[in-house]
Amino acid sequence: QVQLVESGGRLVQAEGSLRLSCAAVGRTFSAYAMGWFRQAPGKEREFVAAITWRSATTYYADSVKGRFTISRNFARNTVYLQMNSLKPEETAVYYCAAGTSPSPPVGLFTKKNYDYWGQGTQVTVSS
Q: Is 23 exposed, middle or buried (0-12, 13-18, 19+ CB in 10 A)?
């Protein structure tokens, strides 16, 4: 069983920065891609960013392009999300996810293509 353990969420002021981490622990980990999603109270869980595990190709939601950066440490089985210029409306629980099957890029934007999920980490952006 693979577990995804997120960390790094906290209270930050608007325009501040935060880096989230997600470590995959457990049995030998072989992901096709890893992604970050977020869910604000009363809203659907939405795609934020994804990275293919071997080639490190990255994908972003339009709303975070230029401000967020996803990266991965292959040796540590860890994926990161660097978030800059945070906005109050980005307050949400941020979830890490891993997909094990190859997917066209459009599939990486979709929750159903991910097999494992972390427990989430709360990010609160104050105005």
A: middle
User: Rounded CA gap, 91 and 113, in Å?
Assistant: 24
* CA 7 remoteness from chain centre: 11
Cβ atoms within 10 Å, residue 127? 9
Q: What is the pairing mode between strands 33-39 and 92-99?
A: antiparallel
Calpha distance 24→18 (Å, rounded): 20
Do residues 66 and 76 make contact, with C-beta atoms less than 8 angstroms apart?
no
Cα 92 to Cα 124: distance, rounded to the nearest angstrom: 7
> 47-87: per-residue pLDDT in tens?
999 999 999 999 999 999 999 999 999 889 999 999 999 99
* Strands (DSSP E) found in 46-118: 46-52, 58-60, 68-73, 78-83, 92-99, 116-117
